[in-house]
């Protein structure tokens, strides 16, 4: 108990000396680091947008090791930060143990479900957004062969690939979907050179549209696709601007909105289970002046019909994680 | 023969190296507009200032002791084992299989079983490169590095396809059953009336690491095998002439090395996470190289160096949580320490040696005039 009070005192003093007021929101980034041009960065952008608009400040930390998860959660909770947002499925185990110890603190976990009264769990229907860009890819492809480049071969990325393959097959059942994963270590999320090599390999197999769901690796995929005059599809945030006229579209996963909303709600953030899909703008595809010429009105119309179908339930997109298999693709 | 006294070699050189690294780090922190003294205090207090801090520092240190010893044992035979990372990953697999599929009645037995599992899997992973080196001359540095990637690929495959908890999106095994829970320092010290921090991950495997230090010391300096390993390391041709089999020494030293690296999993997989996650080793295998270099491949040196690196790790984590110093700069600070204590050793050593020689010459001169002979 004395230790607890001492810890509390020490962290509170440090938080104050760092210029942060109590009850500021906090965000914890996963091991990839906050500038990964993808998931973590999207979360950071949401937090930053909140700070810019409200003039508020938030506490943040980038983890370096798995053992730090619980440590960071407890430190922020004891410093009075509220709500505490964590980006990444890997926090689930630590949060399950920590959440009960701080019943007055609200926690928000993205990409995973933790069933505790003071936790808001946000999962994204990546398969729905990927389905739509898969349709666009199939319609834009002349060779009837499209590619997918993932980061690591983990269930989350398989869900992206599976949704994509379903979208492709919905437009053209005869189309071929080539999938490759970049690597087996976390370096795979930031390896543009390997991304470039895989793109070349897929081009040599006939692919003329390539979808990258691989964090920073995707930069290399998009670059090589532009160099070789084929189309590419970005992920997480709108990456159309990277190569105007050469990026077909980007699959949007609005992690930034999830963080922004949580920060805006502050300690009143609603707890419980939350699915961010097409219906509530959690996922989607990017359409702007950079790719307006690539998306024909027919393509747009087809995708909008499908989008409406997914929202009203007449089209179901299979979620890989529901049964760990994909009806149209073998991993 | 000795250019300088033992204490200078063991204490003075690391201290001066640390001081140089600290000065450069302070410059870096000062350059980004933070206060170096405050940052230093946060790091030291965060790593050593409370029981909670020690709980984390010793947790990281335990990892580094195992991997540092692993590199040391191989290094005595002049084998450069870069594969600690992969061997520790495989050790984690061994621990996970032992903990998940064998119903252990008590943690003591589970610890024994897991030690065997971790050591066997780690040893198996270093055995192949060792045989390739001994029989075919394939360079151990290349093969052990490549085995790191194979280990990562194997674990990725197993965790996603075979060992994953059904229904979970996370590539990790289920939590190990309760009887395999290793007592943390909190559990261990409570009966003695000491209340240790409950959240800290340091656990009983620290004691296993200390035992491993003793084992390595006995092995290298008190057994015939250790003598053969050292003789082989000093001169392969002399060792051969003395009837020592190079094949045997390479394979045995590398296998022991792999087993030690694998045993790291007792700490991070069984003691802390209590399940096997992807990328559980987090570079500790590579840090083991720096630890062994700094510790001069001696168990006591390895122990001290591991605690230093543990403190750096933990202090760095606290620093990034409490200040706005970006995590990349904290890596720079950690790297500076590694650079100065490991790679730039001679920069400090050579001037010091010259200094000691000069100091010795003066009092030594009259000694020669004595008609002692």
CATH architecture of the largest domain in chain A: 3-Layer(aba) Sandwich
Number of helices of chain B: 16
What order do the helices and strands of chain B follow?
HHHHHHHHHHHHHHHH
Judging from the principal axes of the Cα atoms, what is the shape of chain A? globular
Overall radius of gyration of chain A: 21 Å
Q: Rg of chain B to the nearest angstrom?
A: 22 Å
Structural class of chain A: alpha/beta
Which short descriptors sum up this protein?
heterodimer, A: 331 residues, alpha/beta, Rossmann fold, 2 domains, six-stranded parallel beta sheet, six-stranded mixed beta sheet, 12 strands, disordered N terminus, B: 373 residues, mainly alpha
Task: Walk me through this protein's architecture.
The complex is a heterodimer of chains A (331) and B (373). Chain A is of the alpha/beta class and 331 residues long. Chain A has two domains: 2-124 and 256-276, Response regulator (Rossmann fold, 3-Layer(aba) Sandwich); 126-252 and 296-323, Response regulator (Rossmann fold, 3-Layer(aba) Sandwich), CATH 3.40.50. Helix content of chain A is 42%, strand content 19%. Chain A contains eleven helices and twelve strands. Chain A has helices spanning 2-17, 39-54, 68-78, 92-99, 126-140, 155-171, 192-204, 217-227, 255-265, 297-312, 320-323; strands at residues 26-29, 59-62, 84-87, 107-110, 119-124, 145-152, 176-183, 209-213, 231-236, 247-253, 272-276, 283-285. In chain A, the strands form two sheets. Chain A has a six-stranded parallel beta sheet, sandwiched between helices. In chain A, α6 (155-171) links the parallel β6 and β7 (176-183). The longest helix of chain A is centred in the middle third of the chain and has 17 residues, at 155-171. The model of chain A is unreliable at 1-21 (pLDDT under 50). Chain B is mainly alpha-helical. Chain B has a domain at 61-283. Chain B is built from 16 helices and no strands. Chain B has helices at 6-31, 36-48, 51-76, 84-101, 107-136, 140-162, 185-189, 205-222, 224-234, 236-241, 246-262, 265-273, 284-294, 299-322, 327-343, 345-369. The two termini of chain B are 20 Å apart. Residues 369-373 of chain B have low confidence and may be disordered. Classes of the chains: A alpha/beta (331), B mainly alpha (373). The interface between A and B is large, with 38 and 46 residues.
């Amino acid at each position: 108990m004395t230790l607890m009070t001492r810890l509390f005192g020490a962290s509170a003093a440090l938080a104050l000396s760092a210029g942060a007021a109590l009850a500021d929101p906090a965000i914890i980034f996963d091991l990839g680091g906050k500038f990964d041009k993808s998931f973590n960065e999207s979360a950071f952008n949401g937090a930053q947008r909140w700070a810019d608009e409200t003039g508020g400040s938030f506490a943040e930390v980038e983890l370096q090791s798995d053992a730090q998860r619980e440590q960071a959660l407890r430190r922020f909770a004891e410093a009075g930060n509220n709500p505490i947002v964590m980006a990444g499925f890997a926090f689930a185990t630590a949060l399950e143990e920590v959440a009960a110890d701080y019943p007055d603190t609200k926690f928000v976990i993205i990409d995973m479900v933790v069933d505790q009264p003071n936790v808001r769990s946000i999962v994204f229907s990546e398969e729905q957004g990927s389905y739509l860009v898969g349709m666009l890819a199939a319609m834009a492809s002349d060779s009837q062969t499209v590619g997918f480049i993932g980061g690591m071969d983990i269930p989350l990325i398989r869900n992206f690939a599976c949704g994509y393959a379903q979208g492709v097959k919905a437009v053209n059942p005869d189309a071929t979907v080539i999938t490759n994963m970049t690597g087996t270590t976390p370096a795979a999320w930031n390896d543009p050179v390997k991304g470039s090599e895989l793109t070349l390999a897929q081009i040599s197999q006939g692919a003329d549209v390539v979808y990258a769901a691989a964090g920073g690796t995707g930069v290399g995929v998009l670059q090589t696709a532009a160099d070789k005059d084929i189309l590419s599809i970005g992920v997480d945030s709108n990456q159309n601007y990277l190569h105007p006229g050469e990026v077909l579209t980007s699959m949007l996963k609005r992690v930034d909105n999830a963080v922004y909303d949580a920060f805006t709600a502050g300690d009143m953030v609603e707890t419980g289970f939350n699915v961010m899909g097409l219906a509530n703008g959690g996922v989607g595809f990017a359409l702007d002046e950079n790719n307006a010429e690539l998306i024909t009105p027919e393509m747009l119309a087809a995708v909008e019909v499908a989008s409406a179908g997914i929202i009203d339930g007449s089209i179901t997109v299979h979620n890989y994680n529901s049964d760990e298999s994909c009806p149209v693709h073998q991993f | 023969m000795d250019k300088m006294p033992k204490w200078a070699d063991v204490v003075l050189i690391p201290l001066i190296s640390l001081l140089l690294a600290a000065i450069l780090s302070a410059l870096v922190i000062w350059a980004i507009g933070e206060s170096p003294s405050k940052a230093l205090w946060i790091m030291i207090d965060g790593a050593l200032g409370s029981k909670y801090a020690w709980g984390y520092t010793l947790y990281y240190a335990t990892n580094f002791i195992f991997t540092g010893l692993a590199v040391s044992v191989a290094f005595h035979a002049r084998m450069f084992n870069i594969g600690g990372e992969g061997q520790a990953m495989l050790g984690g697999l061994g621990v996970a299989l032992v903990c998940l599929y064998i119903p252990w009645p008590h943690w003591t037995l589970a610890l024994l079983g897991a030690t065997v599992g971790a050591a066997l899997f780690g040893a198996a992973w270093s055995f192949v490169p060792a045989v390739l080196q001994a029989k075919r001359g394939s360079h151990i540095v290349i093969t052990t590095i490549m085995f790191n990637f194979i280990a990562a690929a194997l674990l990725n495959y197993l965790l996603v396809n075979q060992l994953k908890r059904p229904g979970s999106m996370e590539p990790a095994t289920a939590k190990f059953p309760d009887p395999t829970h290793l007592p943390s320092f909190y559990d261990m010290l409570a009966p003695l009336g000491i209340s240790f921090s409950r959240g800290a991950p340091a656990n009983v495997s620290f004691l296993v690491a200390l035992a491993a230090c003793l084992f390595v010391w006995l092995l290298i300096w008190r057994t015939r095998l250790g003598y053969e390993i050292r003789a082989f390391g000093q001169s392969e041709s002399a060792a051969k002439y003395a009837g020592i089999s190079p094949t045997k020494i390479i394979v045995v030293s590398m296998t022991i090395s792999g087993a030690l690296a694998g045993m790291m999993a007792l700490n991070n997989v069984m003691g802390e996470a209590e399940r096997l996650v992807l990328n559980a080793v987090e570079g500790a295998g590579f840090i083991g190289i720096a630890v062994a270099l700094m510790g001069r491949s001696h168990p006591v040196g390895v122990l001290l160096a591991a605690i230093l690196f543990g403190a750096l790790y933990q202090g760095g984590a606290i620093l990034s949580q409490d200040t706005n110093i970006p995590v990349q700069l904290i890596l720079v600070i950690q790297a500076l320490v590694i650079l100065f204590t490991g790679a730039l050793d001679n920069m400090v050593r050579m001037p010091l040696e010259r200094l000691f020689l000069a100091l010795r010459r003066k009092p030594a001169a009259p000694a020669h005039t004595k008609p002692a002979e």
